[in-house]
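[Q] Does anyone have a clean structure-token version of this?
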Amino acid sequence: MTDALDTLLLEKSDLTADDLQQARDFAVQTGIGLGRALLKRKAAEEQELLEILAEYFQLSLSKTLPQGTDIEFTTRLPIGFLKKYLLVPVRIEGEPCIAVHDPFEFQALDELRSLLQLAGCKVVLSPEGEIIRTINSAYDLTQGSAEQVIQDIDEEDADVLFSKIEEIEDLLDDTSDSPVIRLVNLMLSQAGRANISDIHIEPQQSTLKIGQRLDGVLYDMFAPPKHVQSALISRIKLMARMNIAEKRLPQDGRIEIKVGNKDIDIRVSTLPTAYGERMVLRLLDKSTIRLSLTDLGMAPERLELFAKMIRSPNGIVLVTGPTGSGKTTTRRLPDASFVTRNI
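[A] Here you go.
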């Protein structure tokens, strides 16, 4: 089998015999399949490799997967298992299938078939990003709506709420039973997927209002009962490494989370009011900052002037604008290397 696959890879790609041997050694050292080893070593392009593997194993190649068609498996399988081996059960044209990224993960595939009683079901190849997106979508649907989580919240949930915060790779991997923690995770994961720029938590006299800002417009998100206010704000302050005992002075903090494939930076600020602490969370998707200075859309003469000014040994350049206008993106451009400071 190895010789036949090697011949196919060498014929239909730019791989060399040394590339293959090094990838095999790397696969043995790390315990991953040959396909993932080739990609991690950047020895092959994903699409080209998938096409070759599909031909060799006589499997179908599915560049996109249906979302939300089958989520029953989420109650029987931990999300970490599927993400580790990059495979997920799906239904394609009504038939149960297993989408895999690396067909060399034989043992994980057999375990999945056994656990879900899917012996003999069809196997399809799919890109890594598509499999991750399908996994995240399925487990996100099982988290329940905000209303369901709110109904589970008890005022005596403080023991779990103030437990030590564990570092998790992905917010969707957190399986905490605490309703308050689940509500915060749900709020942040929904905002992260929907490209929300801000979350506003505003205490009223007898209610708690939570809104989200999208494209400059503030929309209502949901309204938990008033007794949730203290626990909800304390949980977020813990995540932001803020002083939960200080409620009379403004505070600032920062949270870094991962939602699916997105790395999100959250700046948190609190302000005391007559009805409790008002909180604003500003979200920045760090994965979207892929612009160069010329991508900002400046007129050529303004771009030339700007480039000259930022390279001046003295002086100041003010970048101003409303929320979401691109201030942070502009100051983090790779070719705009100058000292900056938020004011």
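[Q] Thanks! Anything notable?
[A] Strands lie at 60-61, 87-92, 95-100, 122-125, 198-203, 208-214, 217-222, 251-259, 262-273, 276-285.
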